[in-house]
Amino acid sequence: MLYGVGTDLCDIRRVRGVVERHGEHFALKILGEAELAVWTARSQRNEERGLRYLATRFSAKESFSKAIGLGMHGPMTWRACEIVNRPGGQPHIVLHGPLREWFDARQLVAHLSLSDEGDYASSFCIVERCDGGAA
């Protein structure tokens, strides 16, 4: 059963501006531990890839927060929600702490799609309620 839908469009130029003004502070605020390691490695190899990674993660968390109906209010926090890639590259949401407990108590499962092209990163998230097991 459909629980919620969220979408977001992020201007990568804005993310670039924030990083230029504040350095890694924005990434430290937005990214969880696993994401931060990927962002650091990508940024060291190619600054643009790092910016795109940061923008897609920001967008994904925004769309997820909309799909669950909380926005950026507890238990939803930037770092409690991580977007990691499965071995085949598919983005997958990993939740931590009170957000994970909240999500699991409602028997929810999330599906996420990410894209970046030109100056924009976008995301689309569908959250379903499962009666029984995860899909």
Automatic annotation (TrEMBL):
<dbReference type="InterPro" id="IPR008278">
    <property type="entry name" value="4-PPantetheinyl_Trfase_dom"/>
</dbReference>
<keyword id="KW-0479">Metal-binding</keyword>
<dbReference type="GO" id="GO:0008897">
    <property type="term" value="F:holo-[acyl-carrier-protein] synthase activity"/>
</dbReference>
<keyword id="KW-0808">Transferase</keyword>
<dbReference type="GO" id="GO:0000287">
    <property type="term" value="F:magnesium ion binding"/>
</dbReference>
<feature type="binding site">
    <location>
        <position position="62"/>
    </location>
    <ligand>
        <name>Mg(2+)</name>
    </ligand>
</feature>
<keyword id="KW-0276">Fatty acid metabolism</keyword>
<feature type="binding site">
    <location>
        <position position="8"/>
    </location>
    <ligand>
        <name>Mg(2+)</name>
    </ligand>
</feature>
<keyword id="KW-0443">Lipid metabolism</keyword>
<dbReference type="Pfam" id="PF01648">
    <property type="entry name" value="ACPS"/>
</dbReference>
<protein>
    <recommendedName>
        <fullName>Holo-[acyl-carrier-protein] synthase</fullName>
        <ecNumber>2.7.8.7</ecNumber>
    </recommendedName>
</protein>
<comment type="similarity">
    <text>Belongs to the P-Pant transferase superfamily. AcpS family.</text>
</comment>
<dbReference type="GO" id="GO:0005737">
    <property type="term" value="C:cytoplasm"/>
</dbReference>
<keyword id="KW-0460">Magnesium</keyword>
<dbReference type="GO" id="GO:0006633">
    <property type="term" value="P:fatty acid biosynthetic process"/>
</dbReference>
<comment type="function">
    <text>Transfers the 4'-phosphopantetheine moiety from coenzyme A to a Ser of acyl-carrier-protein.</text>
</comment>
<dbReference type="InterPro" id="IPR037143">
    <property type="entry name" value="4-PPantetheinyl_Trfase_dom_sf"/>
</dbReference>
<dbReference type="InterPro" id="IPR002582">
    <property type="entry name" value="ACPS"/>
</dbReference>
<keyword id="KW-0275">Fatty acid biosynthesis</keyword>
<keyword id="KW-0963">Cytoplasm</keyword>
<feature type="domain" description="4'-phosphopantetheinyl transferase">
    <location>
        <begin position="4"/>
        <end position="121"/>
    </location>
</feature>
<dbReference type="InterPro" id="IPR004568">
    <property type="entry name" value="Ppantetheine-prot_Trfase_dom"/>
</dbReference>
<keyword id="KW-0444">Lipid biosynthesis</keyword>
